[in-house]
Amino acid sequence: MAWYTHSTRGRTVRASSCRILAYILKNMEIRKIIPFEDQEAVYEEIERLRKLAHRSQEDRDRYEANRKIYRDNLATEQWALEMGEKKGRQIGLEEGIQIGQKRGIQIGREEGMLDAARGMKTKGYPLEDIAQITGLSMEEIQKL
Q1: pLDDT averages per 10-residue partition of the chain, 144 residues
Q2: Which stretches within 27-143 are classed as H helix?
């Protein structure tokens, strides 16, 4: 949370995030707005800001610069993970399509052979010839 200054009747007033959060907490019913499990994080943030408020401006600026670096690194890491997942999904999709196409071709060939065997059987071809031409077993041909 940022530090900022503003002028009031010629005076420069420094307001910290800690003061802002303290004001908000005093003037709202926090237990109804913030879920119970998140309230501890709010109080921890207030304590962090309270400690920061007692530091010099130089220390606060250095602290904020370090936090910015941390957040930038975190965002970069999250972006890299998202891009890796996206690339992984794309590769998986492409491989799935290839496998599906190969399987579809295989099923089509099998069905084509069965159709051809049915046609030959209907025309009265000997079962041995049908088996030799189609590569189907005698049992498969008899089931047709």
Answers
A1: 42 53 63 67 75 79 89 93 93 93 90 86 85 83 80
A2: 30-33, 36-53, 57-123, 127-134, 138-143
